[in-house]
Amino acid sequence: MSFRFLTPQFAVSPQLSVADVNAAASDGFRTIICARPDGEGASQTPSAEIEQAARCRGLDFLAIPVRSGSLPSDGAVEAMRAALERMPGPVLAYCQGGNRAARLWALAQAGSMPADAILAAGRTAGVDLSALGDHLNAAPHVPQPATGRPGARRFNVVIAGGGAAGLATAASILRRRPGIALAIVDPSATHYYQPGWTMVGGGIFTPEQTRRPEEGLIPAGATWIRQPVAGFLPEARETALEDGTVLSYDVLVVATGLTLDWAAIPGLEETLGRNGVTSNYRYDLAPYTWQLVQGLSRGRALFTQPPMPIKCAGAPQKAMYLSCDAWRRRGVLKDISVGFDTATPALFGVAAFVPALMAYIERYGIDLHLRSKLVAVDGARRVATFERATEGGSERVEQTFDMLHAVPPQVAPAVVRSSPLAGADGFVAVDPATLRHATFADVFALGDVAGTSNAKTAAAVRKQAPVVAVNVLAALDGKAPVATYDGYGACPLTVERGRIVLAEFGYGGRLAPTLPLWLLRGTQPTRLAWFLKEKVMPQLYWRGMLRGRELLAAPRNASGA
């Protein structure tokens, strides 16, 4: 296919195929813009396929659909103008025949390029733009200057973090306002479904079921910047990247997640993955958990939980229950001494679910120690040291093990802790309802990095993302937050293979069941909850939440409606 250049940095073409994308990349194009709505023709390649092919070749992609037979809307023109200002060139735009893409470009140049020059550029590419008439004599467009230092790349919204929270929020924003200039900043090439790692450690999922390429999850219309964030400068509305790039924003969303502080427990990090030491909190170690469970027929197995806050507070117990159930099914549980040391004062933070969990503690014969913290590991000797609370203070206790499932303390990322955004605990200080920063009205945070008291789970993100999306758009419009988050979180506690206690709760431990309590037998383990965990929740994550589909997660109005 031949590409028609209106300028050395901009060309148009008819409908592209995947092969045409490869040719465009070989010709040096760096950005592809789709100006054609999907579904216009039977043989039309969907824009999602063109986007995937573009991103595979390292090209940026943006869809600004323009209906056939009509002039581009003001929103489409502004989106095109913003794209040409911030996306790398040369740019190739396409539609059915190329003319709509050319008109979109021409209107985006109006006011900053003489009308005669625009018409001449069209003639060079074989496109008659004269029908645009007076539209090309618009008042000069004055780009909004980037705040802060010269050379900053400007976006309406910058999202720091491309995990579950960042992707879900970006998708929800772009579904509501497709033409917005939005950047997702994250260097990771792979995205992980972390709730599935418990199932990997229990022999139910394979590791491969829990990962997908990040590029296939970036929502259409977003710019993916593959760099780590190096610093937040909220006074200047800037975010600095590791390579020295500075991003300027109208609104910032912090969704960086948290940091697993393995080094906080002396001896732990260097023995992970060997000497019987494992953790479902890492993708590469969850298979080792199942390997150890299968190989153990007698001896001592220890499971630990650090002080809060941590990612999914039920996960340390889930690993233990699934292991015990596997040993029970093999008939070897009676020969294995199982211990659970948790730094928390209770088995679970919501009292209503404790009786059902205690029944399994007793069923499996687990030696439970509350207010007990893992403080050292000697892998070579297979000895774990705990600091346990006593009536008069604390004591150190050494325990030998054949298997140790360890969960590390968890902290906010260093880039957040050292920034003006951090609260006293190091996490981003936000209003717990609106998720807007306590000081900076143009900053929001959600997910594990947000300094709220809710459980740090993917289920919480599913409810937080639409709230942040709506409030971000309100902030862009100069309005106060209009949606609130009620602290919802969910923890499917896998007490045995085939049964789960589905704990759903909000701020203050208030029960917040999605389905009627009678259907899930209240706070008791059910097979239905297992079905939801094994079959439904992964699909809800990949196909729903990360795509901005807000099934049973529509944001509540700030008034409570």
Automatic annotation (TrEMBL):
It holds the Pfam family BLH_phosphatase. InterPro entries: BLH_phosphatase-like (IPR005939), FAD/NAD-bd_sf (IPR036188), Prot-tyrosine_phosphatase-like (IPR029021), Sulphide_quinone_reductase (IPR015904). Its cofactor is FAD. One of its GO terms (biological process) is sulfide oxidation, using sulfide:quinone oxidoreductase. GO terms for molecular function: FAD binding; hydrolase activity; quinone binding; sulfide:quinone oxidoreductase activity. Residues 3-111 form the Beta-lactamase hydrolase-like protein phosphatase-like domain. Keywords: FAD, Flavoprotein, Oxidoreductase, Quinone, Transit peptide. PANTHER family: SULFIDE:QUINONE OXIDOREDUCTASE, SULFIDE:QUINONE OXIDOREDUCTASE, MITOCHONDRIAL. This is Beta-lactamase hydrolase-like protein phosphatase-like domain-containing protein. It comes from Acetobacter aceti NBRC 14818.
